[in-house]
Amino acid sequence: MEQPKGFEVKGKKKLMCKLNRSLYGLKQSPRCWYKRFDDYISLIGFIRSLYDPCVYYKKLTEGDYIYLLLYVDDMLLAGRDPTKLKEIKAQLSAEFDMKDLGAAKKILVEILRDRNTNELSLIQKTYTNKVLCRFNMANSKVTTPLAQHIKISARDSPKDPTDRQAMSYVSYSNATGSLMYLMVCTRPDLAHSSSIVNRYMGNPGKIHWEATKWVFRYLVGTENRGLLYKPPKDFKLRVRGFVDANFAGDPDKIRLLTGFAFTLGENLIS
């Protein structure tokens, strides 16, 4: 690596330093941290998930597990036995400098619990309000993600330089990207509308922007909506799928649009 500013060796400024350990900010630093953590967590009995490399689990007894989720250097621990969770925290604290923040309230999304009903909700209220203020859409609302009468297509894209210049001042890609982020994380009710407005990101027109603002208006008053997880009434984890399609819903390519939803024990998983 280059010699750090203020620590250059006189007469040898052109020479490079040999890197003996990982430093914060280097491109390989995240990989070095993950490898270090993975080696230790495996040593104390955790197994890395085959489906997500940042999810680990440890079997205690038959049907009883401790789960650990890693996001950069933030962790979530989940399990039934508080004593076992404290033991894992003690092991991690002995190996790494860490701070126990207690029950998780926010990690990427906001986490709400109702222990009386055994319900857990994931919402993005703070992020939603931030986006609405950013695009000056915090004062109006509608009742649907996208109205039935709104029909947009590639024909609504700008045809001349003047219209394109006018739309160049609109942060269309940022707006539709914000909707997509909400949809992917906690708002599946935005899936259809966000997919429609995202089609025209390459050459958006005024009508496309009006449709996007309609979706933003829907967010006003629905910022508390999100994903709800609760135990099924009969305590059986059945997988159910719901699929539907329309007829020629894509006006540009005259093809149908398909939507699906899958639940596990009445909880949406896909």
TrEMBL record:
Segments passing through the bilayer: none
The Reverse transcriptase Ty1/copia-type domain, residue ranges: 1-146
InterPro entries: DNA/RNA_pol_sf, RVT_2
Entry-linked Pfam families: RVT_2
Family matches, as PANTHER family: GAG-POL-RELATED RETROTRANSPOSON (PTHR11439), INTEGRASE CATALYTIC DOMAIN-CONTAINING PROTEIN (PTHR11439:SF491)
Protein name per UniProt: Retrovirus-related Pol polyprotein from transposon TNT 1-94
Source organism per UniProt: Cucumis melo var. makuwa (Oriental melon)
